[in-house]
Amino acid sequence: MSQSILVTHDGAVLDPDVPYLHADDLAAVRGDGVFETLLVRDGRARNVGRHLARLEKSAEALDLPAPDLARWRTAITTGQRVWAEKNGRATEGLMRIVYSRGRESAPVGQAAPRERAETGITRESNEATAYLTVGPVAEKVATVRAEGTRVITLDRGYSVDLAARAPWQLLGAKTLSYATNMAAQRYAASQGADDVIYVSSEGQVLESPRSTVVALHGDTLSTPPVENGVLPGTTQQALFAAAESEGLETAIRPLRVADLIVADGVWLISSVTLATRVRALNGYEMPAPAREADFAALVEKAVDAD
C-alpha cells in the first residue's frame, strides 16, 4: 500500500496521519481557498509551471496574499522526492496543493499572536494555510484512461457572459468550493453515466467538473474559451503546445453539443487522468477515433515534456 505524504509550505515533512488543520480553518468551514492537483510520475511532478501560474491567478481572484512560488517549488521538490523514496519512482502519485485564507478566528490580514501547533510547526495564526499532500492515484484512473467514459450534459445554470459581469462568482478560479461539482457527478452516476459536461444557458459546451473538454475535427483540436467561465486547463495547454509542434491545428472557440456529436473524437483532459475518451454522450455511442492511440501518445508526450 502506498504511503501518503504531507509537506508544509515551509518544506517540513509531517506525519500525514496527525491532524494538521484547525477546526475553524476557512478551507473546511467556507471552502475559502484554492488548490491545484498535479501528477507525480517517475518521481517528478508534471506541468509545475502551469499549475503554479494558475494557483497565482486563482489566489488573486480570491484576494489571497500572492503565493510565494519559489517556496511552493521547494515544497513540490520535497514532496516528489519523499514520495519516490517511500513508494518507488514507478508509482504514480496525486499531488494536491492547498492554499486557504487560514483560521476563521483570525483570518489573513488580522493581527494575531504567534502559536505553536501540536505538529511543532510555528506560524502566525493569521497566516494563510499552505501545504501539499501526495497520495496514490485512484485505481479507476487506469480504467478510464484505457476504456473511456460515459458522459451526460448538465445545465450549469448561467450564461457565458457571467464571468465578465460577475467576477465575484470566481468562474475560472480553482477554488476549494467543489460541492456542486461533486453533486453533479453523483447525479450522473444515478443516471448510469460516469461523468458530466456542463453547458451554458445558451447551450454552449463549458467543461467537466474536473476536466477540460477537447474535441477533434479533422486535424484540428478545439476547446471552449476561458472567457466563457471555464477553468484554464493546464494539461490542455500542454497538449495544444505539443499538437502544434506536430503540425496539428488548435482552436479556442465556442462549441455546442452538436459539435461534439459530429467530432472525430472527444476527450476529457485533466492533470491526473490525462486523456479520457468520451465513448458515450447522452446515451449516444461515440465511434472510436481512427487515431485514438496517437492522441493518447500525444498527451503523454505533452505531460512528459514539462
From TrEMBL:
Record GO terms (molecular function): 4-amino-4-deoxychorismate lyase activity
Kindly name one Pfam family recorded for this protein: Aminotran_4
Q: Give the main EC class.
A: lyase
Q: Which UniProt keywords apply?
A: Lyase
The source's superkingdom equals Bacteria
Q: What stretch or stretches form a coiled coil here?
A: none
Q: What is this protein called?
A: Aminodeoxychorismate lyase
Which species?
Williamsia deligens
